[in-house]
Amino acid sequence: MFRVTLRKLSTMSSIATSSKTNYPKEFIKFLNESHTPYHVVHNMKLHLDQHGFQELSEREAWNGKVQRKGRYYVTRNNSSIVAFAVGGKWQPGNAIAITGAHTDSPVLRIKPVSKRKTENYEQVGVECYGGGIWHSWFDSDLSIAGRVFVNDRESGKIVSKLVDLNKPLLKIPTLAIHLDREVNSKFEFNKESQLLPIAGLVNGESKGDEDVKEDSFSSLKAVVERHHRSILELVAQQLNLSSVSDIEDFELILYDYAAATLGGFHDEFVFSGRLDNLTSCFTSLHALTLAADTNIDEETGIRLMSCFDHEEIGSSSAQGADSNFLPNVLERLASLKGDPSSDVNDPLSKSYILETFAKSFFMSSDVAHAVHPNYVNKYESQHKPIIGGGPVIKINANQRYMTNSPGMVLVKKLADKAQVPLQLFVVSNCSSCGSTIGPILASKTGVRTLDLGNPILSMHSIRETGGSEDLGLQIKLFKEFFEQYSSLESNIIV
């Protein structure tokens, strides 16, 4: 399903290897195999499976299944995931060390009715998702990935399958400068009619009537009528379907076909899309699997990683950070004693949940703004994070970020012990400030929260720039957080 081109392999092979995990190399591989939130979660599950984590289902009771010293994960919509390792001395009401990130990025998504034809060009209707720098998508080679619901003829069920076409299929061409002499001074475009990819030349493509049964009622037009047959044939070919009519529907996303790669004179940069926020998904994942192997017998708490879909559009969905996904998981864990005799109806369960919320800590991790050398005046003069300088603590007096002094004291102690340098970021008073999942989950649970992230340039562009050394630094910090939080939390009095 995930094909890596020779171009990508040659890039990876140039990276030096060592006896330890080469995080930049692993991150490049992760990026090149994770073009949609569904692929992100799929690849995170594979990593967790390899490290002894067991999958749980929200549709079932966890009583008796979740054991001390156990490792587990649960997904929602296959685009959000929570994974955790239970301490050997866990008791209900104890603290939980939590990291949070998001799996989505600003992208173009194929519309439900995408078939377009203009001036002998086949075009694909797309919808803007999130706050992307859309002009960066012009003239890039674009491919398609996502999930597809198909009829399984053997079982008679409709099943979900991942697809990544992994070839240059689309292009949003710019207008030649000869026809727009002001393009370099003012590049403006209509997102509905001019942010429209071309996919081919009209060649008499049929409407697919042979795949549509005219004598049967259908509440919606079949996919073969709503989308270009060429796209459906590529999907069917990759999934080994007997006919495009087996495709019921899909959620397909455009992405930059150019592979993620290391760059710079000394491979100090990561050039890729989706650094916001697969960076934090990757670092929290590796930190958790490392921490799950360290002193878990003596751990009194739970070490937990959460990654959510739909952060780029406000998190208000069934699988976003503003849903009940994480609170529900925390409630289940806080009321379970870790053995088959646990009673979820214990009258003290509610008290245990509230105790756990009060003792726990949420490290909300999203990428931060690195100082841009060509736009230094856009930054607050004393808060200019640099790529390669380590994780950035993000602070905002208006609570767009949730960092406060108790959280900074905690993170500083962790970073001192792990020998991880930290940076500080405050947005200039003349600029607007983005936000994260931190304030959302803090307000839903009351859990103490801090916002931080690795610095990048060109945030929300189709191609962002991050730091290769920052990956290992953040993993070290998160690992220290998972391993030390339960012993530290009672010593910081608020």
Automatic annotation (TrEMBL):
A biological-process GO annotation: proteolysis
Cofactor dependency: Zn(2+)
Taxonomic placement: Eukaryota, Fungi, Dikarya, Ascomycota, Saccharomycotina
Keywords: Aminopeptidase, Hydrolase, Metal-binding, Metalloprotease, Protease, Zinc
GO molecular function: metalloaminopeptidase activity; zinc ion binding
Name by which UniProt lists this protein: aspartyl aminopeptidase
Reactions accelerated catalytically: Release of an N-terminal aspartate or glutamate from a peptide, with a preference for aspartate
Family per record: Belongs to the peptidase M18 family.
Cross-referenced Pfam families: Peptidase_M18
Enzyme Commission number(s) of this protein: 3.4.11.21
Record flagged with keyword tRNA-binding: no
GO cellular component, one term: fungal-type vacuole lumen
